[in-house]
Structures are given as structure tokens and as C-alpha cells.
Specification:
The chain is an all-alpha fold. It is 83% helix and 2% strand. Helix 2 crosses helix 5 and helix 3 packs antiparallel against helix 5. Pfam families: OEP (PF02321).
């Protein structure tokens, strides 16, 4: 009995010691560290839309197998229907249509993945941008506080007016309000990213990627030719043409060229051929427009960088000038606001540039999916 009591006491003491030791151990938080590429992988992994796409593909595969079986059954029979349907079975029109539908469904899945990449990148950069806004607002608050402290000292010494002190107080209050607003916007941006990743909205995330400019070196003419073959809308148009042409050819076996059915099927072919010609021009227009947008966005980055350098230097000089009594406090505050706005504009221009590259690549490789 004594041994049993001692054993129980020993176990209790061990548990208490373990609990106390655990309590004294610093606990790691649940913050997820994510680079942009990791965020994209997470969005794809957690996507419910892609699960639906997989089911759609399975259905199209079943429909294709069914069409092949029906054509094989007809091929192995000892008789011919002698009808349009029979001619269409002979030409494997139904299995070709089912194969095209299957191929299109797979492309739709690819489009969904590319769209997820775009949305994730957009949300990730949105969160990075909001974080940059917050840091810029925080720096702006620090500068406003320093400026206010400096004005207060000058006022106490009798070398700054009461109005200067009031202006400094107003500027400081505005900086504090901007910081609160940027904090709220940052929280909203992070929730937006969590939504794209299919995470709980308030999941804590640490973004490890930076606002790096992506490289853009392409062969425009080659990309336009690639788009004619790879874009979903062009593939869909070519598939439609193949089926409409087979439909015309199978009907033309039975119906003479002077009949209504023949003319109707012939017109359908002409319609699709016209659409194909117009579609190529539209694809070229789309790609060239997005190419121009990328290059324009690149130029905007260079302008924004130059503006940041100039605005920061003007702010520095205005502070020195004010200390020397050669500038007003209002001029210093205006320079501070210009520096703040220039830094925010730079973040936005880099984000717009990187997203325009993704948009261009989508135009070349995926196109429009309906």
C-alpha cells in the first residue's frame, strides 16, 4: 500500500514539474511565414474550385469513353444506317467532339490555376503594399513628432510663433490618424490574402518576399504565334470549326447542294471561318495591348524612383532651411507629405508592373475562358 501511495505521489510530482517547466518555456506563435511562391502553392492546394474542375474532367472522360464505345459498336456491326447519324459515326464526329470537350475542360483547369496565381499575387502584393503604407505612415509620424518637438523647443525659446506650434500639432494629429487608417487597411489586406489562400481570415502571416521587380524579356511576334495555338478561345474556335466542318461534310453526302439543309450547314462553316479570322486579330490586339502596358508600367517605376529620391532630398533640405530660419513650417510639412506620397507611389508602381507581367503571360498562354 505504501509503495502504491509513493508511486502515485511520484507521478503527480513528475506531472507538476513538467507543467511548470512547460509554463516557463517561451511559446512560439502561430504565425505562418510565406514567400510569394509558397502562398501560390497554398492557394492551389486549398482551392475548392480545382476539386470541382477535377470532377468536371472525370465526367468529360466518361462522356468520351461512351462516344468511343458507341462508334466502335457501330463499326463492328454488319450494316450501315445510311443516315446523317451513320455518316457522323463513320467519321468519329461524336468522339472528336467529346475529346475536344475533354481537352477544353483540362484547359479550364489550367486557367483556374493561372487565375489563382494572379489573384494570390495580387493579394500578396496588396498585403505587402499595405504593410509599406503602414511603415511609411509610421515614419511620417516619427518625422511629425520630431518636427513638433523641435517647434516646441523653438517656441519655448521665443523663436517660433504660436501658430507654428498649432500647425505642428495639427500635422502630428494628421500623422497619427493616417497611421491608424493604414493599420486598418493593412489588416484588411491580410484578411484578403487569407481569403484567397482559404485560411481562417485572422490567420497571422509573415510575408517573406519583397517588392522585387520581375524580369520581362519576351519575343512579341513569337508569343502571338504561340497564342494562336495555346489560348483557350483559339483552341475552342478550332475545335468548333472541326466539328462544324464534319457536320457539313456528313450532311453533304445525303443532301444535294441546292437543298436548305446543305446551304445551312455550308453557312455555318463560313460563319466559323469568319470568326476565326477576326479572333486572330483580336488575340494580336490583346497581347500587344498588354505588352504595351508592361513597358509603360516599367517606365512608371523609373519615374517613381526618381520622384522618391527628389522628394526625400527636398524634405531634407527644407528641414535644414527651417532650422536656419529660411523656410516656413508649412513648407517643411508639404515636403514631408510629398516624400510620404512618393514612397507609396513607388510601391504601387512595382506592384502594378509585376501584375501586368502575369496578365501578359495569361494573354499568351490561356486567353479568355468562358
Amino acid at each position: 500500500m505504501k509503495r502504491l501511495v509513493l508511486s502515485v505521489l511520484l507521478i503527480c510530482m513528475t506531472l507538476v514539474t513538467s507543467i511548470l517547466a512547460y509554463a516557463d518555456t517561451p511559446q512560439t506563435n502561430n504565425t505562418k511565414k510565406l514567400s510569394l511562391n509558397q502562398a501560390i502553392d497554398e492557394a492551389i492546394k486549398n482551392s475548392t474550385e480545382l476539386k470541382v474542375s477535377d470532377l468536371d474532367i472525370e465526367i468529360k472522360e466518361i462522356e468520351y469513353d461512351k462516344a468511343k464505345r458507341n462508334e466502335k459498336k457501330y463499326e463492328n456491326s454488319d450494316f450501315s444506317l445510311g443516315t446523317v447519324e451513320g455518316f457522323q459515326l463513320d467519321s468519329n464526329m461524336y468522339s472528336k467532339a467529346a475529346q475536344n470537350a475533354l481537352d477544353e475542360e483540362k484547359i479550364k483547369k489550367d486557367y483556374t490555376i493561372e487565375d489563382l496565381k494572379y489573384k494570390t499575387t495580387q493579394a500578396y502584393y496588396g498585403a505587402l503594399q499595405a504593410k509599406d503604407y503602414y511603415e511609411a505612415s509610421n515614419n511620417n509620424l516619427t518625422n511629425a513628432q520630431k518636427s513638433r518637438d523641435n517647434v516646441k523647443k523653438k517656441h519655448d525659446l521665443g523663436v517660433a510663433s504660436k501658430s507654428d506650434l498649432y500647425m505642428a500639432d495639427i500635422s502630428l494629429a494628421d500623422a497619427k490618424a493616417n497611421l491608424e487608417t493604414s493599420k486598418t487597411n493593412m489588416q484588411s489586406a491580410y484578411r484578403g490574402l487569407n481569403m484567397v489562400l482559404n485560411y481562417p481570415l485572422d490567420t497571422k502571416i509573415e510575408l517573406t518576399s519583397k517588392f522585387d521587380e520581375k524580369k520581362f524579356k519576351v519575343d512579341l511576334k513569337k508569343d502571338i504565334l504561340t497564342a494562336y495555338e495555346k489560348r483557350f478561345d483559339m483552341i475552342q474556335m478550332n475545335n468548333s470549326y472541326e466539328i462544324v466542318k464534319l457536320d457539313f461534310e456528313s450532311n453533304s453526302i445525303k443532301y444535294p447542294s441546292n437543298t436548305y439543309v446543305y446551304k445551312e450547314k455550308e453557312r455555318n462553316v463560313a460563319k466559323v471561318e469568319n470568326l476565326m479570322s477576326n479572333s486572330k486579330q483580336m488575340v494580336e490586339f490583346d497581347i500587344k495591348s498588354k505588352y504595351d502596358k508592361v513597358n509603360n508600367s516599367k517606365r512608371q517605376i523609373e519615374i517613381a524612383k526618381s520622384n522618391v529620391d527628389k522628394a526625400n532630398e527636398v524634405f531634407r533640405l527644407k528641414k535644414l532651411s527651417y532650422d536656419a530660419g529660411m523656410s516656413t513650417l508649412l513648407e517643411v510639412q508639404e515636403a514631408a507629405n510629398q516624400s510620404y506620397s512618393a514612397n507609396i507611389a513607388l510601391s504601387k508602381s512595382i506592384s502594378d508592373y509585376n501584375l501586368s507581367i502575369i496578365d501578359y503571360n495569361k494573354a499568351v498562354n490561356i486567353g479568355t475562358v468562358r
